[in-house]
Amino acid sequence: MTRHDWTKEEILAIYNKPLMSLLYEAATVHRQHHDPNKVQVSTLLSIKTGGCPEDCGYCPQAARYHTDIEGNDLMSVSQVKAQALRAKSSGSSRVCMGAAWRNVKDGEEFDNVLEMVRTINKLDMEVCCTLGMVTENQAKRLAEAGLYAYNHNLDSSEEYYKEVISTRGYEDRLETIDNVRKTNVTVCSGGIIGMGESIDDRAGMLVALATLNPQPESVPINALVPVEGTPLEEQQKVSIWEMIRMVATTRIVMPETQVRLSAGRTDMSKEGQAMCFFAGANSIFAGDKLLTTPNPDVNEDMELFKTLGLEPQKPFEKKSQPKTVEAEQSFYKPLGEKPKWSRPGHKIERNEEAKLKAKVAK
Ligand code: SF4
């Protein structure tokens, strides 16, 4: 039975178990709820890159920092379709489209994204979007277009979140997840380790996710990839042991969830990844880029799958395919809402420094 009343103390006790006991427990839970030889493969597509107004300290797409990523405007529907077909032919069951926006705004660009959702759903692939905060009506429009999942990460514990981001509040993250829950779109929400947070913060983030009812259907666990020019450029990379502990703990407290190995996989050995799969990870991002950070080559992934006897999960194995309603038949119309998402605006020293450095560099 899935529990929704996890406490931080309980989660810390799991995280800090002797590693072999932790692995054994996580692998047992994994086998009780999933086929341990199946891994869901997603392709992440950056449909609008860079120029983001937010100040997330880990992100090279924030306009205020000086990084060498190449920005691009919203891709066209035909470009997205071509990329989705490529992803499908290389074994992905899901396309996750990411746009560097603070929140979704009704209008032409969102209409285009809705058309992208319709197009990919018609290719019989799961479609996920990560577009920032959404209102209930916008979530319903995405659902109507055939969206399978919406990603909105909590990033860290509520306490540590304030040390990384000042332009939006944790409660808005939760409200967006809540808005998505008012539809039949599944929720994908996880976080990043290696941003300088404590183990307590990692447990705090897992409490926030595991006490959601229902729990998110997907939980991506990212290891920070420090990018030059961002406030977190000097963070030390996390060790594989921390990653394994985080994956195993996530698996135990969220038994039904698909736990996804996300950013940071290029720094992991094949043996390290295998241990993560054993500890309960059952989803990866494929493709040579994760929005803007590097990712292992698809062929390398498929070779690793072969070595480990893993098989890519077919689309809609966990939940049936949503129906697509065409734009003309749509029941939910744009409301032109202007929601007041919060902007706490507190000072984060290292974010300020990175912004100043960027100004000097420009
Ligand atoms: S993580 Fe998303 S919201 Fe934050 S700066 Fe990057 S693109 Fe913007």
Automatic annotation (TrEMBL):
Co-factor note (free text): Binds 1 [4Fe-4S] cluster. The cluster is coordinated with 3 cysteines and an exchangeable S-adenosyl-L-methionine.
Cross-referenced Pfam families: BATS, Radical_SAM
Binding-site residues for [4Fe-4S] cluster, renumbered to this chain: C52, C56, C59
Protein's UniProt name: Biotin synthase
Record note on quaternary structure: Homodimer.
Cofactor needs: [4Fe-4S] cluster; [2Fe-2S] cluster
Pathway linked to the protein: Cofactor biosynthesis; biotin biosynthesis; biotin from 7,8-diaminononanoate: step 2/2
Main function: Catalyzes the conversion of dethiobiotin (DTB) to biotin by the insertion of a sulfur atom into dethiobiotin via a radical-based mechanism.
EC number: 2.8.1.6
SUPFAM superfamilies named among the record's database cross-references: Radical SAM enzymes
Protein species of origin: Psychroflexus salarius
